[in-house]
Amino acid sequence: MRCPARAVEYASLLSLELPQGPGSVTDVRLLTSHHLLTAALALGGCAGQGAAGRGSAGAGGAAAGGAGGVGGAGGDGVLTVGSGGGGGSQTCDPGLPSVDDDLDGFTEDQGDCNDCDPNANPDAIEVESKNPQDEDCDGLIDEPAESCDAGLAIDSLDAVEAARALGLCRDVGAGQSWGLVSAAYVNADGSPGTPSLNVGLLPKFGDYNLPKEGDTMVGLSSGHARDSSQPEPCGGPTCTPKGPGVVPVAFPQVVPGCDTATNFYDDVALQLVLKAPTNAHGYAFDFAFFSWEFPVFVCTAFNDQFVALVDPAPPQALQGNISFDSLGNPVSVNLGLLPNCYPDGYDLFAYTCLGGPTPSPCPAPPSPYCPGGPGVLSGTGVDLAMTESGASTGWLSTTAPVSPNDIFNIRFALWDAADSQLDSTVILDRFRWLATPATVETVPSPN
User: Which of 63, 198, 200, 301 is deepest in the core (most CB within 10 A)?
Assistant: First the structure.
């Protein structure tokens, strides 16, 4: 119901100071009792309506019989007043279809299906919730995210297809204003690179590691991004697809008490430029890291690293990297999240750290040791020793914050450290936008 113009005029005669939360008024100063009576009568038909346009919702009186709080005015929407006695229900009248009342960049004429909610418009993501609604204004409610990675070739070197394998199905352009802006395979430092067998679009990795969404996931490797059953596998712990390389500035990330490499090999990276939807407040992706270097080379210079570098870097990132454990350790064999390994390797944990030329306070084996066992290594190629060497994080999820409409660069990079021996591989999948605020965090991924 629209407030009559006379009601709006009388509302200006009331001077109200509203508290931080709705539903009460701490101080009401009235010009005269006549003004109060006149305004109350004029506003009676508008009580209980919620906010519209740029104004805030009307707040009710602090106690039973209290005066209704005056809502803010803005856009072409309706000035509204909350009901007295603790506040009433709120509704919204978006007004003229040519005006963007909720300031989300879309009018009703432009396809906004709820011009009272900035989280609903044609450039929003669909959000599954306890209160289902059509956020992306496509006429469907809580439909599942689309998949677009069926039939991709394992040896494809097309970085856009790699983005599809990650779950990024929408491109900026062609009438779309959020999604993938660009994709490229590069070197770890961001310079132009030439991918080869160190990248792959994988339908599986080993016997138990399947895509988290769709049919395909991305593989990056300092050796061959293939499992033992796929074309051109490495067939051993070491393949050298590239040779000497350069890592990003401020990397490798130092692990306190451990040696740090100064030369690097076989680096590879997938770089994406993305634009966030209008209702996105975070994003997430899943990954699993596999390495031959565990357990012998823990806390040595021979620590391959995987990083996810974001520019502009969000708060809590470490030199732009958003994938690390709760202690700030990078994704390597020093990570505190390596439960999948061979229990027989216990006595070899950090073995070369103990026997190196410059001993440091080497870490003790974790307890429990290898609680996940070696199952996820089966068929990956990291299981060829069949005992002692090799480990995996299993699936992990990294989250990070973003603001609506932000454009940012994310580079997934991996490299061999100190020498080109003993390879590592990372698989990545299920990039998704989050409609709730997120922080930088990496935790085990739910199934």
Answer: 200
Is the residue at 153 inside a domain? no
Residues 365, 384 within the same domain:
yes
Residues of the domain holding 123: 104-144
- pLDDT for residue 37 is more than 60: no
Answer yes or no: do 261 and 287 share one domain. yes
pLDDT at 412 over 70: yes
277 and 228 fall within a common domain: yes
379-398: pLDDT as tens digits: 999 998 767 899 999 999 99
Residue 145 backbone dihedrals phi, psi, to 5 degrees: -65, 145
Please state the domain count of the chain: 3
Residue 434: phi and psi, rounded to 5, are -115, 135
Q: Provide the token pair at 389.
A: 């060497």
78 and 140 fall within a common domain: no
Kindly tell me the burial class for residue 14, based on how many C-beta atoms sit within 10 Å of its own C-beta (0-12, 13-18, 19 or more): buried
DSSP 151-190: T--TT---HHHHHHHHT---BSBTTB-SEEEEEEEE-TTS
Task: Taking residues 83-104, report their average pLDDT.
Answer: 64
Rounded-to-integer distance, Cα 193 and Cα 208, Å: 31
Is this structure's pTM higher than 0.90?
Answer: no
